[in-house]
Please model this.
Amino acid sequence: MAPSAAPQKKWPSVSPPLQGADLEPPEEVGPVEPPSRSGLFKLALGALGVVYGDIGTSPLYAMRECFHPSHGIALTAPNVFGTVSLIFWSLMIVVTVKYLGFILRADNRGEGGILALIALLLPRMRDVRVGPIPGGIIPFGIFGAALLYGDGIITPAISVLSAIEGLQAAAPAFRPVVVPLTVLILVSLFWFQRRGTARIGATFGPATLLWFLTIGAIGVPWVLKRPEILQAVNPLHAVRFFADNGMRGFLILSSVVLCITGAEALYADMGHFGKRPIRLGWFFIVLPALLLNYFGQGALILDQGPGAAQNPFYGLVSGWLLYPLIALATTAAVIASQALISGAYSLTQQAIQLGYLPRTQIRHTSKEKAGQIYVPQVNQLLMVGSVSLVVLFGHSSGLAAAYGVAVTGTMVITSLLYFGVARRYLGWPLPVAIGVVGVFLLLDLAFFGANMVKLVRGGWIPILIALLLFVVMMTWKRGREELGKVMLASASPIDRFLMTIQRKRPARVPGTAVFMTLTEDIAPQVLRHHFRHNRVLHERVILMSIVTKNVPQVDDTRRVQVTELSHGFFKVKARYGFMETPDMSDILIWCLAAGLPLDIDQISFYLGRESIIPGGEAPMARWRKKLFMLLSRNARPATDYFGIPPDQVIEIGSQVVI
Model:
């Protein structure tokens, strides 16, 4: 038993807003005040830089990959019309209808992403009105979340590499510098992340606006030159394309899907900006610009023939205009990576709070928007992964195979989870849910099936990354559950412990002791060890439990509940959402507000440090027990995670066999 040593943290000076306030919180949070017009414009501009960067750079490679020689698609006018039609309807159905029209409605108090969908389902697992959710749907969703990390590794690599490859189109002599320059840009991008999403959005927003205006503008002359390309809005061209090309036409969907990469990040990043700014940005800026550019590329190929299909994006301009376009494309590619990077941060925070990942460092980078965070460890892993892929593949066409598998796999899982949310959270009748989600799922499975042929050409990479992360996440969740069972088996109810205090009447010393506990009605093991060995207690003892609710944020005024017991004991229950990071100073402020007299500079925090020993009867494979032991050993210390001053902490170690 020894105090932990680390730099001292100073508590904030506080004055309680209300003595004896009623802080019993309901599940829901209060309504959020909508932003003003100026605030809405700023959020929409920031959303361009963070949310739409990925899908905005798809024109760099999507059309080129559709006509890649490996597909064996003849460059005839009907095939060009058919391909452009497939791109048009993919943008309209998948992004506009599915994500912006439906998926964004399934927000969990303003937050989106796969784990937000899972959190919506968790409290309704036993909803008797519609029946229980199948037991495998939650692990399935966790695998989808793990796929997003693979997406976050591939997106920066393919986006930046595709832009830099424009140098080769300008002059073949630039070929040797493409990979080194891409690596340099990626390292700079990930270093820049520490400045936070708010500053990045403010910096990248105007640049992305210029990008969208530019790609729309360079497509207009070609559309005016060959206006017949606009006939591609007719879906019959897509139908005829499939009829004429058979299986080869179906497999081209593996490249068509590249035009909608970033749609999942659009949903995952919703908490950073909100639904209205994201929708405004899409309908007024992003969609018109993308359509003009894709139709312009189709017109270019119609006009100039097969040679233009080698790199139709850069073929839209000529002469000296090519170099500033390459520079702007490189800037846009850097921005494109931001959607998945910030999405990975949000995903990590949610996974930690929901119990699927060990504690790690999370920095909040904005006082106005709680969802804007920076996770250093995730940032480092994404950087290493992205740089490694660039060096391994060396060209963007190779990365496109891996990219499609990650994107389509996540889209399928999102649709499946949305079906459960539509039934249990949105209250849709079964026929309606099957009809709507069935259409989305049919498209998702078509894209996913077309990408399966690319497994041997790089598609295995995101699957492998997702499998490794899935094992880690499920092992941590299962390990914590089994550890809780072992601890609970030897636990003692707090009422019985208080009876022991009344009977033995131990010596009481001045001050306050805080004991962290997972279960509020149980005397924590640390308290029992302390009392058994020291035979003394502080005059005031607080049993503190921190609970993660299945909502993104809990309102501050409903944050903490204080209950007075007997013999100087108090129960404090602090509630946090899965998009929040608990902070001890915040909790103590509300304890003061509830009328609990505290000298917060004189509090002693007693924390347990369990040493996990694999060898017990817990129903887990031995290798998973060892993995859990490794993860537990490397988890961020509670003192750091909860913001507890280290010089006020006393840790009591114990060995637990699982």
In short: Residues 491-657 form one domain.
